[in-house]
Structures are given as structure tokens and as C-alpha cells.
Amino acid sequence: MKKLIIIPAYNEEGNIERTVNNIKENAPEFDYVIINDCSTDNTLKICRENGFNYINLPVNLGIGGAVQTGYIYARENGYDCAVQVDGDGQHDAAFLNEMAATLEKENADMVIGSRFIKMEGFQSSALRRMGIKYFTNLIKSLTGATVTDPTSGLRMVNRRTIEMFAANYPTDYPEPDSVVTLLKKKGKVVEIPVMMKERESGKSSISARKSVYYMVKVSLAIILESVASK
Amino acid sequence: MSLRLQIIILVCFIIALIGILALCKKKRMDLRQALPWMVAIIILIIFDIFPVLLTWLANLMGIGSPMNMMMFFGFAFLLIIILILTMNISKLMKKTTRLTQELGILRAELEKEKKKSEE
């Protein structure tokens, strides 16, 4: 099975080396590709000097467009499975093998690494947990499925889903949205417990001001997604 | 509507029409996208030259003042154009995203090939 790790990176000069080394050490059977989303810092230089496998986007596309580039790359190069690992060092590559095993064993379309099954590791702030809980409930009421961590960036998908995401992927805050799309297409989504770390350097993309936009936009996207494919 | 106002409005519309045509001539505006504007201006010119039409239409629709009706139509027209523009922007964003992704992947492949042939 050909397995690919997609690492979207925007201004991650402080984390990118560690993230890639972590992958090489803990998940050596995975190929990886860094999508440098037109970073303004030294991310590109670091990738070049270390001989990392990277794709450099000439203009900034935002997280959705960057991750989708990875899925297109996976499709073109015949990968059977692709996983998104954030370039900020929050995701531990040690969980990837377990996720791949689950994907194969359960014949799932997507395996999500959830922080909230075992409640271990970095749990995010109380306010964010509330927001995540809200999305869990919204998704449950619209699709009937329980997804404990719909905002998790650590997601592994199979070939079918790679092709689906390569063709269509939301532009910003794509995680909860694309889970619902998959559920509505009768895809099988499985969650396994993981531990996440607090980011090592840099800032989260979701500030207080943006969180209102996040809630409204993602809610609307989820609702539209569940209506459109009926 | 006084004759003076009628003439002022007419002059303004004609200048706008010439302006749009000039933009098309200089290729700074696509003729396809300029057409709705030109049609709207020509309709407004017709109403300006024959204010009777305006009064008749306002009465028909139960709007007290013909000028209010003009305002309403103008507003509705602007909203439609802005909506179409927003749709076009979304479409363009999708296209640029696709192009950027393809370009990024192609360049990465090209660099790999170059390295291979250098070795």
C-alpha cells in the first residue's frame, strides 16, 4: 500500500524540520509531501536546504487549497492512502501506523484521530471544546453519525476519498465540512484515540475574532452539505 | 421633471455610455460584461426623454412619485449586477486555485527531473 503524508505549511519555519524528522523516525514507510502555501518566512528555504520533498505554491491559497494540492498529488502519483499532518508539530507521527491499520482493517473511507475518546494529551481550551461539542451534536442531528472530534486535522483517507477531495474541497476550515460530505455520500468514518501536543511555535490560525466567523461558516457549510446531497 | 433636469440627466447618461464604450475599445472591459450596463443606460435615457412613460409606469405600479420608482429600479439593477460580480469572483477563485495547484505540482516535478538529469 502506497501511503502519503500531506503536510500543509504556512510560516512554519520553527516546526517544519521537527515535523519531518518525527515522520522519518516514527512512520518511515510513509512518503510525505510538504505543501508550502507561499510562506513569507524561511519555510521554503528550510525545505530546499534539507532536501525535503515539497510543493511550493506560487500564491497563498489558504489551508483548504493547500491540503487539496496534496490530495491531487496523491491522486496523480497513485497513492492508496493519504493523511494530513499539520506542519505545526501538534500531530505525533507515532499514531499513523495505527491509523493505517484501522483504515485497512475496517475498510473505512476516513480514519480520524480524535483527542476526545480517551481524553489524553493536549485538550484545547474549554471554549474550543464547547465549540467542538456543538459541531459533534450538529453532525449527529444531521447525519446520525457520532464524530467526537470533527475539527481534528489528523485524518487519514483511502483512495476513493482522495479522489473525492482532489475534485472538491472546501477553501477554509475544511475539516468538519468535508467529514459531513463524506458521511452523506455513505462513506465510512472511523475514529481512533490519539494524543495531540500543544503547538511548539507560531500561532493558531483561529483567533478570537475569527472564531465567530468559523462557527457561522462551518455551521452553514455543514447544513448546506447535508441538504444538497439528499 | 423640469426640462433643465432632463437635459442634465441626459448629458450624464451619454457621458457614461461613451465612457463604457471607450473602456471596451481600450480592452479594459469585456464587451460581454459591458452590455448589461449599456442596456440599462439606454433604458434610462428613453425614460428621461419621454417622462410620460415614467409617470405611466409609476401609476401602473402604484408608486406615488416617478422619481422614487427610478430610484427603486436603479437599486434593484445595482444589486443584480453586484450579485453577478460576486458569482464571477467565486468562479475566478476556483479557477486560480486549480491553476496554482497544478503549477505548484508541475514545478516540483520539473525540479526533480532537472536534478535527475544533472546527476
Rg of chain A, Cα atoms, Å: 16 Å
Mean pLDDT metric of chain B:
89
Mean pLDDT of chain A: 87
Share of helical residues of chain B: over 70%
Helix and strand composition category of chain A: alpha/beta
C-alpha termini separation of chain A: 34 Å
The geometry of chain A reads as: globular
Question: With helices defined by DSSP (H or I, 4 residues minimum), what is the helix count of chain A?
Answer: 8
Identify low-pLDDT runs of chain A.
Answer: none
How many strands, what sense, and barrel or not for the largest sheet of chain B?
none
Largest chain interface and its two residue counts? A-B, 15 and 11 residues
Could you provide a short overview of the structure?
The complex is a heterodimer of chains A (230) and B (119). Chain A is an alpha/beta fold and 230 residues long.
Task: Identify the notable features of this structure and list them briefly.
heterodimer, A: 230 residues, alpha/beta, seven-stranded mixed β-sheet, 8 helices, 7 strands, 15% strand, globular, B: 119 residues, mainly alpha, 4 helices, 89% helix
Describe this structure in words.
The complex is a heterodimer of chains A (230) and B (119). Chain A is built from eight helices and seven strands, in the order βαβαβαβαβαβααβα. With 230 residues, chain A is an alpha/beta fold. Chain A has a seven-stranded mixed β-sheet with strand order 3-2-1-4-6-5-7, with helices on both faces. In chain A, β2, α2 (43-49) and β3 (54-56) form a beta-alpha-beta unit. Chain A starts with a strand and ends with a helix. By secondary structure, chain B is mainly alpha-helical. Helix content of chain B is 89%, strand content 0%. In chain B, α3 packs across α4. The A-B interface holds A 35, 54-59, 61, 65, 68-69, 72-73, 76, 171 and B 93, 96-97, 100-105, 107-108.
